[in-house]
Design goal:
single chain; 183 residues; alpha/beta; Rossmann fold; seven-stranded mixed β-sheet
């Protein structure tokens, strides 16, 4: 069993902001694999399969920095091992539209990832990092809550397709092969 969590902030106000690219990408994965996400209170959850592997798709519906307890509750409920947890999240330090797969490591200052590390008590899970770029002179807290420009929308759509490809590769071929393919 795999648990794939996309990180973002709940509510219409944040729906298409840079910080919600994890939600956007998870919804792209759900669409690709024909999985519906159903509201369950503090999260949206979908069940499906990729190449015969059972997967759970999760959107925590609390604010980004509170994602960890939701991820941990679902991970524990379905007995998902940390090495089968994939977290899709935005990354300020990568060019918009770029993608990187990483096993373990620090949060890199990402509050949602830090919340997950604290809640599961481990750094040993897979991250699919989606680049959102950075604008010089704009505080990170302000920049991540901005919407993508019209020029960036097609780049983001392409990246969402790439995230779905990467998730498929991780689940079906293993994270090391996926890292060699996408990093």
């Amino acid at each position: 069993m795999w648990l794939i969590a996309g990180l973002g902030n709940p509510g219409r106000k944040y729906s298409r902001t840079r910080h919600n690219v994890g939600f956007m990408a998870l919804e792209g994965v759900a669409q690709r694999f024909g999985t519906d996400l159903v509201d369950r209170g503090q999260y949206r959850l979908g069940r499906g399969s990729i190449e015969g592997h059972h997967v759970m798709l999760l959107e925590p519906l609390l604010y980004m920095n509170l994602s960890g307890p939701v991820v941990e509750n679902v991970r524990r409920k379905f007995a998902v091992q940390n090495e089968n947890l994939i977290v899709i999240h935005d990354d300020l330090d990568m060019e918009t539209g770029k993608l990187r797969i990483r096993k373990g490591g620090s949060s890199g200052g990402h509050k949602g990832v830090e919340s997950i590390i604290q809640s599961i008590g481990s750094r040993d899970f897979i991250r699919v990092k989606a680049g959102i770029g950075r604008e010089p002179g704009v505080p990170a807290e302000e920049y991540v809550l901005r919407k993508f420009s019209r020029q960036e929308i097609s780049v983001i759509k392409d990246m969402i397709e790439l995230v779905a490809d990467a998730v498929h590769s991780i689940v079906s071929e293993g994270v090391d092969k996926a890292m060699n393919k996408f990093n």
